[in-house]
Amino acid sequence: MRSLLVDLVDRSRLHRLALAVLFLLSVLVYGWIFDYVVLLQYLSADCFFVWDRTFLTQWLDRPGGLLLYTGRFLRQFFHFEFPAALIISSLVTVAGILLHRIRGRLGHGIGLFHTLAPCLFLLALHAASTFTLGLLVCGGAFLGYLHLPRREARLGYLLLLTPLLYGYAGGYAWFFVAWVVLAEWLSRPWSSGLALKVLYPALVLALPLAVYRWVPAVSLAGALLSPLDLPHRLLDWLLYLYLLLLPLWPAIPLRGRLEAARTSTRGLVVQLGLLVVLTVGLLAYAYNPTAREVATYHRLYKNGRWEEILARARAHPSPLATTQFLTNRALQHQGRLLDEMFAYPQSWGTRGLVLSFTDYTEDMRWALYDSELYLEMGHVNAAYRLVYNQENLLGRTYANLEQLAECSLVSGHYAVAAKYLRILGRTLFHDDFARRYQALLADTAAADRFFEPARQRRPRVELDVNLGDLAVLLAVVESAPRNRLAFDYLTAWCLLDKTSIPIVAAHVGRFREAGYVALPRQVQEALLVWEELVRRSVDRQGYAVDQAVAGRLARFAQQAQRLPSKAAAQVGMQPSFGDTYAYYYVLTEVPGDPMGFPSWLRLGNELFAQERFEEAACSYAHAVLKKPESGEAHLHLGNTLMSLGRAAEAEVHFRQALKLDPSQGRPGGEAEELRSH
Questions:
Q1: Hey, which of 17, 333, 534, 615 has its CA 20 to 30 A from 107?
Q2: Buried b (16+ CB within 10 A) or exposed e, 6-32
Q3: Is 627:633 a contact under the CB 8 Å cutoff?
Q4: Confidence grade of residue 256 (pLDDT, cut at 50, 70, 90)
Q5: In terms of Cα–Cα distance, which of 175, 178, 226 is closest to 65?
Q6: Is 42 exposed, middle or buried (0-12, 13-18, 19+ CB in 10 A)?
Q7: pLDDT at 592 over 70
Q8: Do 47 and 76 form a contact (C-beta atoms < 8 A)?
Q9: Does residue 347 have a pLDDT over 90?
């Protein structure tokens, strides 16, 4: 057995077998365990590729641009998961072959561990990235250098190849430069070949300096490193260091002991054990259950598998805003949003209904979800604005280009839509979408008839779409009260917001316009909670309250009074009342909305000017919550409450406005109105 193992090692058969196993392992990992990486990356701009000269030329204005172009060319095939797994597996395996051959040419023992360990790092950390491509290009160039026997041939090779390699791979060329310099220093006496050892790095450094000097669009950091990113994780630093110092391994002491370990049975078993531990450890480190959860929900959402989304949300409640958004979309598509919304986690409040993050980049990352929602309900301008901003900030993707085309078609901007469709027509896997709509645009009259139902849903009430989700929803519902999707989302938004329940209470009659025979269960709960808080009844416009709903709310109040603290109530009452609006309103803490004080104040002003006083009061109430020290906000809220006939509540805010800004009490000042009440 021992002789067989030694024979396998000596003939490099074991290395070939190991590389074959690496390939199969990579296919398994990215075809099954890490398939979410492929799906999520395909949603990014890194996979967008167009087959035309214009797209190619935009990558020629910077060092490393062609490497990025090559990466996009390969990643366009991530449209399908199995080809993506094959591409990733091939890249990682070729990297292993190159490193194996380079170590052989450098003349030191080719241990199995040293052949596969860098590949495992690439598989777990950089399999779908530009880093692997850059390493392959530089590794191939260095292997070619090592194959040249004569010094003059090597010198000519360097002079010819280095500028080309820098132009193609940019900052990744420094791996090649480091390998060449280290190999020269270690393979020759220190006094031999000093011109190459010293002058070559200096001449290479002149390349990025010349680019920085003569190409205005390229910064110094970009000329030196782009598209190579400096590592941010310890494991990345270890991988970079290992690769940069590749030619140093022959000079490491104890080489004889390592060589003995390489060829002995015990040493081989140790290497295999280390590789297994390293594989499991790296894959466990790289695995991201959060990203996998988002990818699973996204796949179900795109396939319209709504019941599967709800079943998954029931079985494995998720705290993520994106999964809560998709759960709510599934509820709405099944017609159960206002009856079952609080049976599912709503810990993000309104931000899990219409996605909204405090970080603008994160907001734009998921903007397509909101855009698709707004387009479906009819607010084409809001849908277009979101996806247009996403394209400008994060780059062009297949999905945002299709959404831009659809928004332009519904708006009747056929020339703009044709521009987007021409681009999609030059892609490999999205040209069917382009051809379908291009055929429709051949007859504009037929196109008008086709898009007329969608155009009927467009809002006719003007509200600035930059003033947040409430402005968008109000504009659609005010224009088309029978728009069930928009109405359900507006009602759900008000319930999740808590502060905006008065909007629902003031317009109960709209449920009949939206086609409701009875009030949804959780709307009934919200109105009962609101009546208890404000101590006045709500006009239900003839709708009855289910006695079971009222009885359950009464039991909630009784049990809440018996528990010693809010924390105890959250735990103790969740099993029995976790699916009620009362539990959400009283016991669920949700993050505040990300819209700032000026936007709420502006929205209130717009609504007040349109005499929509209940909505204006809610907007001003938000402004007061955002900035309690604003006398202006209190004053506007007081005026709005006066318009609603709620003088006692208005007086509180008028007095606060006078306290914060006494100038409002001067003759002619707006708060002077207080003295007449």
A1: 17
A2: beebeeeebbeebbeebbebbbebbbe
A3: yes
A4: very low
A5: 226
A6: buried
A7: yes
A8: yes
A9: yes
**Cα angle, residue 257 at apex, residues 252 and 262 outer, rounded to 5°:** 100
* Cis bond before residue 317 (omega within 30° of 0): no
Res 230: pLDDT: 85
* Contact between residue 344 and residue 324 where contact means Cβ atoms under 8 Å apart: yes
Instruction: Give backbone dihedrals phi and psi of 335, rounded to 5 degrees, phi first.
Output: 70, 25
- The set of residues, in sequence order, having a beta carbon less than 8 Å from that of 634 and lying 6+ positions away, is 624, 653, 654, 656, 657, 660
Alpha-carbon distances, residue 251 vs 130, 180, 259, 549, 666 (angstroms): 31, 15, 13, 79, 88
The sign of the CA dihedral 379, 381, 384, 389 is: negative
pLDDT of residue 416: 96
Q: Tell whether the model's pLDDT for residue 414 goes beyond 90.
A: yes
Q: What is the token pair recorded at 129?
A: 């990235």
Query: What residues have CB less than 8 Å from 98, skipping those under 6 apart?
Result: 136, 139, 140, 143
Q: How confident is the model at residue 244, as a pLDDT?
A: 85
CA 312 from chain center: how many Å?
A: 21
Which residue, 35, 37, 74, 79, is CA-closest to 399?
Answer: 79
The dihedral through the CA atoms of 11, 13, 14, 16 has a sign that is positive
pTM of the model: 0.89
CA angle, corner 474, sides to 471 and 477, nearest 5?
A: 150
DSSP string, 47-85: G----SHHHHHTTTTSTTHHHHHHHHHHHGGGGSHHHHH
Whole-number Å distance between alpha carbons of 131 and 72: 13
Q: What is the pLDDT of residues 519-573, one digit of tens each?
A: 999 999 999 999 988 888 888 988 999 999 999 999 999 998 888 888 888 889 9
Query: Alpha-carbon distance 480 to 456, whole Å?
Result: 9
580 is written with which tokens? 């009620």
Angle at 416 between CA 411 and CA 417, to 5 degrees: 70
Tokens of 170: 């940019």
Query: Model confidence over 47-89: pLDDT tens digits?
Result: 999 999 999 999 998 999 999 999 999 999 999 999 999 999 9
Q: Amino acid identity of 26?
A: S
Q: What's the pLDDT at 481?
A: 87
Helix axes 321-333, 289-302, angle to 10 degrees: 20
d(CA 641, CA 378): 32
Structure tokens at 644: 């609603």
Distance CA 127, CA 165 (A): 21
**Token digits of residue 509:** 């009659």
* Other residues' Cβ atoms within 10 Å of the Cβ of residue 89: 22
